[in-house]
Design a protein that fits this description.
Chain lengths: 251, 552
């Protein structure tokens, strides 16, 4: 067996969700919480030194799929030709053991109800059999996703299988290669403290004295993370409300 | 930046001598160096306004001037804030003084439109002789209706009214102006056909103006916030999905010609928009062939329409044939083979290539790049003269409300902006940028988009949230003197302090208190009657407060 896998280029992804929609359309999944492909965004840093992280994540069809072993009903198997991890709906009893085992939150459920059956990304195995690429890869206009034999992806892009915020890959060996976004390069000097001090005061269009934009620069940089939207990556949401919160963009 | 470039002698003198009109250029230079008004536009002058430290401005100016070519992207979106058109104009001037116009990899970097001039549309038929008179700027139609009572009662001077609504007809017509009906036909551009309530300023004004009229006709296949107020809805297809058609996508350097095969079956009685006009012509006793020469009968509609499209595509084939370039046949084209215009050319597209490389004159009075626009400078043109777009097509008449538009690009504080004394009541500047999940208001009701892959929320910076006791997800009211909207907060460090943002195109849904629960930023826009070029402004001052007891 040749293990197939995904390549995700974080430096190219703009979090547009086209892959999420394309996946749902191809697999006939209605709008709602069942997202075989998920797009996460989480921000880091304080204004004005901020960074937005993005991750588009399907199932990584692990070389050592812990979900397979966790299932008491043998409903999940690792397929032979591409190494896809597939679920058998007839056997699934909705125990959610796979969900507990998977570090990536891949198993998807229509509701929070107990006993509801699981569904997940199937690597578009129907398309692979026709010589086509997975639909998420094809739909990506920024070409942030690629698919192919894992050794090929590794020789092209290296063997980084996780981002800093993601779970350790030493047990599951996810079939993915990730290129993290680039770090910013300072090409001109920029004093962020001076920029804040300037922004605090507003010149007046009429000469009349106007109130400051904020009281002191220290309150801009000292914000508690608890009030910020999506300040962390939460791959395993506790329930559907939380899943929708972390996998929706704010526009 | 121009100040640094002049002072350090980094401008391209050879280019300026050859392509730039000299008198206007000297006016601009004297403005930048402060010789005309005594205020030198140095980085130190600019840093207090824009909060980018002077040293950074200086270094960016040098970097742009010495990295040849340098690509500076400035989109027209900057003109959507009050006086923002001045920024866009300055960008073109900056790149002209560096000699970047017509240079591959550089250039004036503003929206050029489909610039290659490839014909895609067949001739419909002879044009009638009737020219629709233009009375006022259509974006101000609601004001034109609502303020009329004040003119009649003498509360508002006629002259002031004409300025506020961008009146451009003979002033004597105003005494007979008595609007009763509104015919709002977006026609083949449904993304434009809800511009009243969800894109024009002040949704509340739009609705009040519609309520004053006796008869309203609109054209759409979806019940949008504007269509709701119509007496008659002409059900027109969506050109992109439901109708067969040829479309051109992309601008300037990224042009393509595509076939729309009509992938979605239109609902109910929805018809092609041209068919609707054909039928209207018949009912008005006009031969529909005069409007659309391909029309033969309703039974043959499909065939007639295809003949029209095919003739249009033939123009594209002929255009390329003249240059010995083969493009897909009609059969291949309708089967999905599209034309990537970039691949058809040996050289990449460069804006104003013809003028710079082949010496063709620019479409200005002097034939050169005008830093000082002689057309705007001529007061006689105000409210009268025709105004052409960069391709020489009649765009509009120079409106009477051109107001403070200066012949050279100058810095002006925006009305209802960060530096307006109104900040004492409404301290936050709201921006209403376009979102990436819809075209204007189209698809706001799409179940696969809103609340599925994105949430329509107001962006508010951490510091502004902290001082108001707001955390992410809280329901907040955004309000000003134009209206109020209620929506969840997205608290983020990704927006500057003092700024909030609501994406353009939300659907106006007033509750019993008049608060817009659909959260259309249009509800909060308006109040600046000195608009310059861009009437569809998308910024205003607002205040924000947390609503207790409601969660998103």
């Amino acid at each position: 067996m040749t293990q197939y896998g995904f390549f995700f280029d974080q430096s190219r992804c703009i979090g547009c969700n086209a892959c999420v929609i394309a996946c749902k359309q191809w697999h006939d999944i209605p709008p709602g919480p069942v997202k075989w492909m998920r797009v996460y965004q989480w921000e880091r840093g304080d204004f004005p030194q901020t960074k937005l992280n993005i991750l588009a994540i399907p199932c990584y069809h692990c070389e050592n799929p812990v979900c397979v072993k966790a299932c008491p009903n043998q409903a999940i198997n690792k397929e032979e030709k591409y190494g896809a991890v597939l679920v058998n709906h007839d056997k699934c009893q909705g125990t959610r053991r796979c969900w507990k085992a998977c570090p990536y939150g891949v198993p998807q459920y229509e509701s929070d109800e107990a006993g509801i059956k699981m569904s997940k990304c199937n690597m578009c195995i129907d398309r692979l059999e026709q010589g086509l690429k997975p639909i998420c890869v094809l739909s990506c206009s920024l070409r942030a996703l690629e698919f192919g034999p894992l050794p090929e992806l590794q020789s092209k892009y290296g063997n980084l299988r996780r981002l800093e915020e993601m779970p350790k890959d030493s047990i599951t060996h996810p079939a993915v290669v990730i290129r993290p976004s680039d770090t910013k390069i300072q090409v001109v000097s920029w004093d962020s403290q001076r920029a804040l001090a300037l922004w605090q005061k507003r010149p007046s269009a009429t000469g009349e004295l106007l109130p400051d934009v904020f009281s002191t620069p220290s309150i801009v940089t000292g914000t508690p993370l608890t009030i910020i939207g999506r300040s962390k990556l939460v791959l395993k949401a506790k329930n559907i409300a939380e899943l929708m919160y972390y996998t929706t963009d704010n526009e | 930046m121009p100040n640094v470039i002049f002072k350090e002698n980094l401008h391209n003198k050879e280019f300026i001598d050859k392509f730039v009109e000299p008198v206007g250029f000297e006016k601009w230079k004297s403005y930048v160096l402060g010789q005309d008004d005594g205020i030198e536009k140095t980085p130190e002058w600019a840093e207090e306004i824009c909060a980018v430290p002077a040293q950074t401005i200086r270094e960016i100016a040098r970097l742009v001037a010495t990295t040849r070519p340098a690509w500076l992207w400035c989109h027209s979106s900057l003109s959507r804030k009050s006086r923002g058109e001045q920024t866009v104009r300055s960008f073109s001037a900056l790149q002209a003084m560096l000699g970047y116009w017509g240079t591959p990899g550089a250039g004036p970097a503003v929206n050029l439109g489909p610039a290659r001039g490839i014909p895609i549309e067949a001739n419909w038929g002879p044009r009638g002789s009737y020219e629709v008179p233009k009375l006022y700027r259509s974006h101000y139609w609601a004001q034109a209706v609502l303020l009329l009572d004040k003119v009649r009662s003498g509360e508002l001077k006629e002259e002031e009214y004409r300025r506020m609504v961008g009146w451009r007809a003979d002033p004597s017509i105003l005494k007979d102006f008595n609007p009763k009906a509104l015919l709002w036909g977006g026609g083949h551009k449904p993304h434009a056909s809800d511009h009243l309530v969800t894109a024009c300023e002040s949704s509340n004004f739009q609705v009040a103006a519609m309520n004053k009229l006796e008869f309203i006709v609109t054209m759409h296949s979806v019940i949008t916030p504007t269509v709701r107020y119509a007496d008659i809805i002409l059900p027109a297809q969506d050109w992109a999905w439901e109708e067969k058609g040829i479309t051109r996508s992309g601008y300037g350097g990224f042009e393509s010609i595509n076939y729309c095969p009509g992938v979605v079956k239109p609902p109910g009685e929805v018809k092609p928009w041209v068919w609707v006009y054909v039928k209207l012509a018949e009912k008005l006793g006009v031969d529909p062939k005069k409007f659309f020469k391909y029309y033969t009968s309703d039974e043959n509609w499909e065939r007639d329409w295809e003949r029209y499209l095919r003739d249009g595509y033939q123009l594209t084939i002929d255009h390329y044939k003249k240059r010995n370039i083969e493009v897909p046949s009609w059969e291949e084209f309708t089967a999905g083979k599209f034309i990537n215009c970039d691949e058809m050319e040996k050289e990449p597209f460069t804006g104003w290539d013809e003028q710079i490389k082949q010496g063709k004159p620019f479409k200005t009075a002097s034939g050169k790049i005008e830093f000082s626009c002689s057309y705007i400078a001529n007061e006689e043109n105000r409210g009268n003269g025709p105004h052409f777009d960069p391709f020489g097509r009649l765009y509009d008449n120079l409106p009477g409300d051109w107001g403070p538009m200066t012949p050279i690009p100058t810095f002006q504080f925006g009305v209802r902006g960060m530096n307006d004394p109104m900040v004492k009541d409404y301290p936050l500047l709201m921006l209403a940028p376009h979102g990436r999940y819809r075209v204007h208001y189209l698809f706001f009701n799409h179940p696969w988009l809103k609340d599925h892959v994105y949430q329509h929320r107001v962006w508010i910076g951490t510091v502004d949230a902290v001082v108001r006791g707001i955390k992410d997800g809280d329901m907040i009211e955004v309000f000003n003197d134009r209206g109020k909207a209620i929506m969840p907060a997205y608290v983020t460090s990704r927006i500057m302090p003092g700024i909030v943002a609501i994406r353009h195109g939300g659907w106006y849904e007033p509750d019993e208190t008049g608060a817009d629960r659909g959260a259309s930023p249009s509800t909060l826009l308006g109040g600046d009657y000195t608009s310059c070029i861009t009437p569809a402004k998308a910024s205003n001052l607002v205040q924000v407060r947390k609503i207790e007891g409601e969660t998103s």
